[in-house]
User: Fold this.
Amino acid sequence: MTVDVGAQLRKGVVEFCVLGLLSREPMYGWQLSERLVKAGMIASIGTLYPMLSRLRNQGLVTAYDEASASGPVRKYYRLTAEGDAQLETFRLQWGPFAATVHDLVGKDDS
Assistant:
């Protein structure tokens, strides 16, 4: 059995990556998907919208419509206060977690 380790790792953190991007600025779906696809975090925009729906249902993001000068109205997503708190909790835990994993599976440089 071959395990796609990258897929499993992405699965565990991609929602926090969305929260991180939205903590910088509100974004519409296509913007988010371009950033995430380019970073290799999602394969296509099709995986983003169900994730955004889950994040909305959890109260971590909210959406609003805004007119676009270059086309139809766009649905923008932004972080809620609860989403910001979740992201901060993740940030506090990620560093020590990543360091521990590195210590356990990293190659010895000696």
